[in-house]
Amino acid sequence: MAHRLLTSPNRFSARFAFIFTISLSCTYLCYSIIFCRGTIMTNHAYENKRCVTSKNAGGKKLLGKVEEGCASAVVDVKEAQRDAAGTSAAGSHWSEGKLNNKNISVAQKYGNKKLPNALIVGVKKGGTRAVLEFIRIHPDVRALGTEPHFFDRNYDRGLDWYRGLMPRTLDSQITLEKTPSYFVTREAPRRISSMSHQTKLIVVVRNPVTRAISDYTQTLSKKPNLPTFEELAFKNRSLGIVDTTWNAIRIGMYIIHLENWLQYFRPSQMHFVSGERLITDPAGEMGRVQDFLGLKRIISDKHFYFNRTKGFPCLKKPESSSQPRCLGKSKGRTHVQIDQEVIDQLQDFYRPFNIKFYETVGQDFKWD
Ligand SMILES: Nc1ncnc2c1ncn2[C@@H]1O[C@H](COP(=O)(O)OS(=O)(=O)O)[C@@H](OP(=O)(O)O)[C@H]1O
């Protein structure tokens, strides 16, 4: 009895110590599970989901502060809304995709925000979104999903602001952004070369007449009361005098803009993608883009399928998703119907500009 009385406090503390240890272990176990899941889920796809819901982060007007880590993954909200899912099944082996996701999470953890080494500078309605979405599946490329408009509208915000928008990259990775209006911005080449003489420039060009109609179709979808294409395109239609002050016409005079770029950059720093071939042979065009960027050719035929409903090539598996995906509804719209006579007049107008452009870049884009 005396023995029992003596040992009962000891037993009590032993029991207490046992329960305390068990509950401590359980807490630790739960914490570890939650924490590890959190770390594993910090991949690009997850960030996309997190960021895309933030209204401040999206939109073409990328103004103000962008949340740390979101800028890289954010898909322009408008863009994301436009980008409807593809309809065909994929069913292809995707080892690079896995590698890419791994690279992305490593970059997010250990990488740094750097100024871009490459830019898609134009042209509007040339196919710039397709090139950006296609090239960003490469594991050595990280791209900003939105158009930052730094070298045209936001230059006063300074390089630190611009750098802050960029995705984190490892030293081996290329940082890329696209803003198609740079190509026709007078100050853009000088500003870009003062950031770095080494910047690689990608220009996606397309038949200037089709490009103008595409541009007009887009504006009309936002402003239904717009004058007709013919009214805007000509100062005097019967005399065939084209209105070169109309942006939709002016953008397509590629040689004029190119001459401005060539005052600051060597031709070898510029790569021209054919907007037409990008649709008929996306793998071929992307092969040349990879060569230009000094990347191993990883993006190939097996990454694309032709979606008959969309009428365009789509990705079997884009960077941020495991699902096949086509670009959105604003890419590949049905164009406004334009008289063949008007088209011929504009073809005639652009011909001398096109020829000079072909000679300068050393490529025939066959727009005639
Ligand atoms: N794979 C694929 N899917 C959909 N669309 C494709 C693709 N490849 C090129 N294109 C062409 O891209 C045109 C839009 O060009 P941009 O992305 O440069 O437009 S924008 O300036 O960013 O608004 C868009 O122009 P429209 O056909 O006039 O809509 C397409 O013709």
Automatic annotation (TrEMBL):
Which residues are noted in the entry as 3'-phosphoadenylyl sulfate-binding?
125-129, 206, 214, 331-335
One GO cellular component term? Golgi membrane
GO MF, one example: [heparan sulfate]-glucosamine 3-sulfotransferase activity
Q: Which InterPro entries match?
A: NST/OST, P-loop_NTPase, Sulfotransferase_dom
Q: What is this protein called?
A: Sulfotransferase
Report the main location listed first in the record. Answer: membrane
| Cysteine pairs bridged by disulfides in the record | 314-326
